[in-house]
Write a structure and sequence with these properties.
144 residues; mainly alpha
Amino acid sequence: MHRFIKYYARNPLRAVVLHLLKKRPMSGIDIMNEIERLSLGTWRPSPGAIYPLLRALEEEGIVTHRVENGKKVYRLTPEGQRQASVVGLVFPPLDLPDIVDIIESYVDYLYDYVSVNGPLPDDLAERLAGISQRLSQLVRGGEE
């Protein structure tokens, strides 16, 4: 995963596009509009940045497209989903479903970690138990 983090740090637009396509299929102009919206109007990538990137992602087998209403609508392939999941672990969450996805990914990681390395250290197990209690309260609608 470290290799992916370094790669996306050098190419943040690629990471942003994968993260957006993980949410839903989009056309190039939809991606440009969404980036502008998320950056509160401070950044709108140019067509000269978005469309060559989408072509490259398609050549790499990370996205595919289908023409819908005259627009190319891009979707992640299974490989694209995998890469977008890695990006999601290091990319700031955009909304509540993102946050839940990230929590779920880390819980999956902890299960794998314990299966390989044995029980968690006591101090981390205690912290996680506290987090679990807080999440349970939150889900039930209570406050801390």
